[in-house]
Design brief:
The complex is a heterodimer of chains A (363) and B (77). Helices cover 37% and strands 17% of the residues of chain A. The two termini of chain A are 29 Å apart. Chain A has helices at residues 10-23, 37-45, 65-68, 71-82, 103-108, 119-128, 142-153, 169-178, 191-197, 203-209, 220-236, 255-264, 294-297, 315-319, 351-358; strands at 30-34, 56-60, 86-89, 113-115, 134-140, 160-167, 186-189, 213-215, 241-243, 265-272, 276-285. With 77 residues, chain B is an alpha+beta fold. Chain B has a single domain, classed as Roll (SH3 type barrels). Chain B is built from 2 helices and 5 strands; from the N terminus they run E-E-E-E-E-H-H. In chain B, strand 2 (16-21) and strand 3 form a beta hairpin. The radius of gyration of chain B is 16 Å and the shape is elongated. The chains are: A alpha/beta (363), B alpha+beta (77). The complex binds iron/sulfur cluster. The site of iron/sulfur cluster has 14 residues of chain A, from helix 14.
């Protein structure tokens, strides 16, 4: 098996960059959007943008589930924690700012909030605290929704409930492309979302918008292969679905994960922070799981608010690829990873956070 | 984060796999996998093994790179 180092090979990167230079259009810029915080992390960490010709632009899209989690869902988690339950969530959620403060602020005031790496940790915590309500605040796209579905399907302990904030990526991208809020020439599809849903899940976007869409992995060679394939297709004016991550992504994805998702969730409209309500992009627990649904168990009645972004934060425009983080006047001044003002500065998958760490253009 | 690197399966139990990378082992749920065997490589996300690496595809991707490898590759590294 080729080792990881080979996907990071300097020679292969150099050879791919030469091909990309040859294939790049001479004048018109090409805008390529990815939809994955981990792709942005790789691009920035490896400084890949600095290797590409200036007319090939790689833009981060709405690929950070923590960033698009609306304030009212964090406030639901705050409400559960304030009622004395043990609240468990992924680390990135702790510092998401809301009008009522963050989960970390609540913890400082005495709420019992712990971070977990896996739904399996939640089962362990529930068993260790048998007399207590334990609630898992589960946030993420398809890749993370599948483990939550597996947890629900396995029949969790009676004192464990689930507060879900899971969202679907291809329908959201379709809506944002259709509305014209996102304007790009090609897409790089997220690798591990596609492990679950399959490369074919992106085909409707290729058909409707006549865009090349390439599923890619996370190593430098993976990402450059995707760029090369996109430029080839644009040159031949033949937009198609591609998959340069076939070692892990199958055309139809994981049947077992999809079955778990279908047996656990209903597809519903969902509010994306800064982007508004998008139909058919949310995964809500099916009614037959009301007993373990935290929204039912704790009778949560917190509705979406209109002001979703802290005043002056432009995360929505960052997530749509309309501006880059340094174009926000608060970037690295009022908004900093130590004191995040907007959601994109909180998560390790947030574009502002990643650009703060690595500079975005160069590593 | 999805920067999951494939990890080698060293043991399979009724509901978990034990995986290893660079000498570090961990356990992961295998609810979402169809079949898995010792020696397979899997990626783990949120404590669940998501899929088994297709070794044949990995090899064939690699073969593609032969077309790219310039003759003077060694000189550049
Ligand atoms: S720098 Fe901060 S305030 Fe500005 S867009 Fe990014 S997260 Fe929002």
């Amino acid at each position: 098996m080729p080792s990881l180092e080979q996907y990071q090979s300097r020679d292969l990167v150099a050879a791919l960059v030469r091909e990309i230079e040859r294939l790049a259009p001479v004048e018109a810029p090409v805008k390529i959007m990815h939809v994955c915080g981990s792709h942005e992390h790789s691009l920035s960490q490896w400084g890949l943008r600095s290797l590409l010709p200036p007319q090939v632009e790689l833009i981060a899209g709405p690929g950070c589930p923590v960033c698009v989690c609306p304030e009212h869902e964090v406030r639901e988690a705050l409400a559960v924690a304030r009622r004395g339950a043990l609240l468990l969530t992924y680390g990135d959620m702790l510092r998401v700012p809301t009008s009522e403060g963050s989960l970390l602020d609540a913890a400082a005031q005495g709420a019992d909030i712990k971070l977990v790496y896996s739904p399996a940790d939640c089962v362990r915590q529930a068993r260790e605290n048998p007399g207590r309500e334990v609630c898992f605040f589960a946030v993420g796209f398809e890749t993370t929704a599948a483990p939550t579905a597996a947890l629900v399907q396995a029949g969790p302990p009676a004192n464990l409930s689930v507060l879900t904030a899971h969202r679907l990526t291809p329908p959201a991208m379709a809506l944002l492309l259709r509305s014209g809020e996102i304007e790009v020439d090609a897409l790089i599809a997220p690798g591990h979302v596609s492990v679950v849903i399959g490369a074919e899940a992106w085909r409707p976007l290729v058909t409707e918008f006549d865009l090349p869409c390439i599923v890619a992995g996370f190593e430098p060679v993976d990402l450059l292969l995707a760029v090369r394939e996109i430029l080839r297709q644009l040159r031949q004016e033949n937009a198609a679905l591609g998959n340069v991550y076939r070692r892990l992504v199958k055309p139809h994805g994981s049947a077992k994960a999809q079955a778990a998702l279908a047996r656990t969730f209903d597809v519903r409209p969902s509010v994306w922070r800064g982007l508004g309500e998008l139909p058919d992009t949310g995964l809500l627990l099916q009614e037959r799981f009301d007993e373990l649904n935290a929204r039912v168990r704790f009778d949560l009645r917190i509705s979406a608010e209109s002001a979703e972004m802290p005043a002056g934060c432009q995360c929505n425009r960052v997530m749509l690829g309309q501006i880059k983080p340094p174009e926000c006047g608060l970037f690295r001044s009022a908004c900093h990873p130590l004191r995040p003002y907007g959601p994109c500065m909180v998560s390790q998958e947030g574009t502002c956070y990643i650009w703060h760490q690595y500079g975005g253009q160069v590593a | 984060m999805c920067l999951a690197v494939p990890m080698k399966v060293t043991a399979v139990t009724s509901d978990e796999v034990v995986v290893e990378l660079h000498g570090v082992t961990q356990r992961a749920r295998r609810d979402l996998l169809d079949e898995v065997a010792v020696g397979d490589h899997v990626i783990i996300h949120a404590g669940y093994a998501l899929t088994v690496l297709d070794e044949a595809e990995a090899e064939s991707t690699w073969a593609l790179f032969d077309e790219l490898q310039p003759g003077d590759a060694d000189a550049q590294s």
